[in-house]
Design a protein that fits this description.
The complex is a heterodimer of chains A (about 350) and B (about 400).
Chain A: H1 2-20, E1 27-32, H2 35-53, E2 56-61, H3 65-74, E3 82-86, H4 87-95, E4 123-135, E5 159-162, H5 168-175, H6 183-187, H7 190-201, E6 207-210, H8 215-221, E7 227-231, H9 232-242, E8 246-261, H10 269-280, H11 282-285, H12 307-310, E9 323-325, H13 328-347
Parallel strand pairs in A: 1-2, 1-3, 5-6, 5-7, 8-9
Antiparallel strand pairs in A: 3-8, 4-7, 4-8
Helix pairs in contact in A: 4-13, 5-7
Chain B: H1 2-36, H2 43-47, H3 49-57, H4 69-84, H5 88-98, H6 102-112, H7 121-127, H8 134-143, H9 150-155, E1 158-160, E2 166-168, H10 176-207, H11 210-224, H12 228-239, H13 244-251, H14 265-290, H15 293-301, H16 306-334, H17 338-343, H18 351-362, H19 365-390
Helix pairs in contact in B: 3-4, 4-6, 5-6, 10-11, 10-14, 10-16, 12-14, 14-16, 15-16, 16-19, 18-19
Classes of the chains: A alpha/beta (about 350), B mainly alpha (about 400).
Chain lengths: ~350, ~400
């Protein structure tokens, strides 16, 4: 009698627990790179989506989220549903089999995206520009092109650059006279790589390297450098919000996409797909621009970007006079060996 | 008597048992598993079984260079199978780490291959000359071995040559010997600097009246309890070009220019020395505290001059503390990561920074494991040498 009572009690408890489960809101775990960019995503996308679906977001911050995903997939303990990744590394994550191959049938028509922003394992979120920035109180007559990085005669002093080969090698070749449409062709040859590194050598002692996006405005603010490469949004926000005397140089900017990916084995796959479909809708995709000046990747979304933001986007007509679009395939093929060479070059 | 001793030993073993198990499962096994990645990489052997077998079957005369038709047929079948179970990308990535730019060639070959059309040497090399190059096949032959020494060799700037010998890596890729050397050099400089600063300070603390020395030791311990990240970040504020240190030097008219201290070796060594000082100081201090002052007085009364008394009575007795402190600092410095990353320049990065880069950014855990293996081996060898020279029983930690 006593036993059966206990069993009934247990059953009741179990039933109670099971009944309680649906009442708890589903949680979507997302990892992104933090700072102003994650804050913008939060306002533009996380909050409205969570409200619409009646779910919660569990936000994490990590600037090398792909390594986190790899560790989780290999340990067969994936707790992440979504991760923002860089275009340059999304192919590598795709090849390693740690990212879910996206079924665009569940998201949006692939042709609605800008060319190269709807990849097999990553969906574009926004367009940003790798630009040059300086402090107008330090340089009264500032540079007019990103290639001024290599002009130490007219612009002496330290320059901040990102500690990766991506972007820097392209600029080095352009500064050495290679036309923008030939850059990746030249860089695919050993002679081209030597040429790019030789050009970088000429300013090696003048470079201060940054690795996190938030460091570049900090370099300018502390006057550690006279100019620095940066993501345009990281410079625009201090100009708009803190009235910093910074200026962005758009000539020869490099345009890239931020990507979002689903780790293979994500616990809430359906919900993750719904989130991707949500941000791929033009009116939602355009909304990010209200919080950080990054452009939409969905073609129709441009009309949903506030007009005062449009002029600050890397894709504004005024800024598109001479641009280079980063070549994802090239970096998928050569990223590893050029990074090796770059690190060896740095360490010498 | 004997039984009692055995009982005691058993009790002792039972007491440390949980700790040993914890060490085994949370420390030794994971380390071994990670280090195993340096030599074990089955990706290509698993994905290209037919090619591996066909390469084994070719006559000895075809062991080098571009293999004959049967191998191409096998490769075609393997790539087709890989395409169907989505492992083509894994092959492309692994081959890419052995041979730059191989990735897109593998993917392209996968796209062109069709069911029912066996690949031949002629068809594949015609579609893409990549498959007719000896370097390609050298990389494939290397890749299909489950156990590999490629990563370990690369960690000491060596590589396998196509003729089967071992050669040096090209100049523009060879860095790790220099980085290991730099790591040991920085560790030595920091150790010496903490000794020079720490020894007199320890002596002072050990010989002051108790109440005063207790207060002063708090000043040593307080930063010791602060997170290393916080202390490193504090140094970046102090060392900046427009930071406090440069302001002070300018104000004192020591120099008329601002020094570049951030992102330099000097700045990094200053910060590391500050962070490591308590580790060196505390064992020395504890050795000095246990020394009876009467011993020095006895030495004086027996006619020793102060220096002789210091050298022959004081120093030998505090030596174990000095050795323990120096060893602690030296070994901790070998693994430094945060301070070089934040305060050091690109030419000041230590071996841990490269290991972390391979794990976090490159996703090449094999290379990270190989570098860790070399670092662990060198550290253990040095530790062995150190304890052999000094005698392990004389080491005295705090």
């Amino acid at each position: 009698m006593k036993t059966s009572f206990r069993i009934t009690g247990l059953a009741a408890l179990a039933a109670g627990l099971l009944a309680a489960v649906p009442a708890v809101a589903q949680e979507l775990t997302i990892v992104s790179a933090g700072g102003a960019w994650q804050a913008a995503q939060r306002e533009a996308w996380y909050k409205p989506f969570a409200e619409k679906m009646g779910i919660k977001f569990n936000e994490q911050e990590n600037s090398s989220s792909l390594a986190l995903v790899q560790a989780m997939v290999q340990a067969h303990n994936v707790t992440l549903d979504l991760a923002t990744v860089e275009t340059a590394t999304v192919l590598r994550g795709c090849d390693s089999g740690i990212l879910q191959r996206l079924d665009y049938g569940k998201i949006a028509d692939r042709s609605k995206f800008l060319a190269g922003s709807a990849l097999d394992c990553g969906m574009g979120l926004d367009v940003y520009g790798d630009i040059l920035a300086y402090d107008t109180t330090v340089l009264s007559k500032g540079p007019t092109s990103v290639l001024a990085l290599f002009d130490t005669k007219n612009f002496p002093g330290k320059r901040g650059m990102r500690k990766v080969p991506q972007g820097n090698l392209e600029w080095a070749l352009m500064a050495d006279g290679v036309p923008a449409d030939q850059v990746y062709k030249v860089l695919a040859t050993p002679q081209g790589v030597d040429r790019a590194f030789a050009k970088l050598d000429t300013i090696k002692n003048d470079i201060v390297w940054w690795s996190a996006g938030a460091q570049s405005p900090q370099f300018l603010a502390s006057k550690e450098v006279v100019m620095t490469t940066a993501y345009n949004g990281r410079i625009q926000n201090p100009i708009d919000q803190e009235k910093k005397p910074f200026k962005i140089v758009w000539e020869n900017q490099i345009i890239e996409y931020d990507m979002i990916a689903i780790p293979k084995g994500a616990p809430h796959l359906d919900l993750a797909y719904k989130y991707l479909a949500y941000i791929a809708q033009p009116e939602n995709n355009g909304r990010l621009g209200s919080y950080i000046p990054y452009g939409p990747v969905v073609k129709e979304a441009a009309k949903y970007v506030p007009p005062e933001t449009l002029a600050k986007l890397p894709t504004a007509p005024d800024h598109m006079k001479s641009v280079l679009v980063a070549n994802v395939e090239f970096w998928g093929d050569h990223g590893e060996d050029l990074t090796k060479r770059f690190n060896a070059w740095l360490a010498k | 008597m004997r039984r009692a001793a055995r009982g005691q030993r058993l009790t002792a073993l039972l007491l440390v048992g949980p700790l040993l198990l914890l060490l085994l499962f949370s420390f030794c096994l994971p380390i071994a598993a990670l280090l195993g990645r340096a030599i074990y990489d089955p990706t290509m052997a698993d994905a290209l079984p037919r090619t591996a077998a066909a390469l084994q079957a070719v006559p000895d005369s075809a062991r080098e260079g571009v293999p004959p038709d049967p191998v191409f047929v096998a490769l075609g079948e393997d790539l087709l199978a890989a395409k169907q179970d989505n492992s083509l990308y894994a092959i492309a990535k692994t081959l890419n780490s052995l041979l730059p730019a191989a990735r897109s060639h593998v993917l392209r070959a996968g796209r062109h291959l069709q069911e029912g059309e066996p690949a031949t040497r002629a068809s594949m090399t015609e579609a893409d000359p990549f498959w007719g190059e000896p370097d390609t096949w050298f990389a494939i032959r290397q890749g299909v071995h489950r156990f590999t020494s490629t990563y370990l060799l690369a960690a000491i700037d060596l590589r396998w040559l196509p003729d089967g010998g071992i050669g040096k890596l090209p100049e523009d890729e060879a860095i790790y010997r220099a980085v290991f050397l730099r790591t040991f050099l920085v560790a030595t400089v920091v150790t010496v600097a903490t000794l020079v600063l720490g020894f007199p300070l320890a002596w002072l603390l050990a010989n002051l009246p108790n109440r005063l020395s207790a207060r002063l030791i708090m000043l040593v311990l307080l930063p010791f309890w602060t997170s290393i990240l916080v202390r490193t970040a504090a140094w970046t504020v102090l060392l900046q070009k427009y930071g406090l240190l440069n302001d002070l030097l300018l104000w004192l008219h020591v120099s008329s220019e601002r020094f570049d201290l951030m992102y330099t070796r000097t700045g990094m060594i200053i910060a590391m020395t500050h962070i490591q000082l308590p580790f060196t100081l505390l064992p020395i201090y504890s050795a000095m505290r246990t020394l009876q002052p009467s011993q020095m007085r006895a030495a004086y009364s027996l006619g020793a001059r102060p220096f002789t008394a210091f050298r022959r009575v004081y120093l030998p007795q505090v030596m174990p503390g000095v050795a323990a402190g120096a060893l602690l600092t030296f070994i901790l410095c070998l693994g430094y990561f945060i301070t070089p990353a934040l305060v050091g320049g690109p030419a000041d990065q230590l071996i841990s920074n490269f290991i972390s880069n391979y794990i976090n950014v490159e996703l090449n855990w094999q290379m990270a494991a190989a570098l860790s293996f070399i670092l662990l081996t060198l550290t253990l060898a040095l530790y062995g040498l150190f304890t052999k020279l000094l005698g392990v029983d004389r080491l005295k930690l705090v």
